[in-house]
Design goal:
about 80 residues
Amino acid sequence: MKALAFLAGDSENLGRFLALSGLHLEDLRERVDDPLLLAAVLDFLLGDDKRLSAFAESEGMETKIVHAARRALPGGAPEM
């Protein structure tokens, strides 16, 4: 959920995510606990190194934590 809050705090990234996903703000509010939505948010963050680094830095974590979180959600690739 921290990743979703991060997006919500940045109107440019939020708008881009909504446009790419086809979702609306109401969808985010209704599906905030949906693992598929959270996976999509992490995919969005992981799709851009600058965005990923900004999120990880804002949370005081290494980017590998974000990768691990994504693997734990539906559709995540198992660690090799």
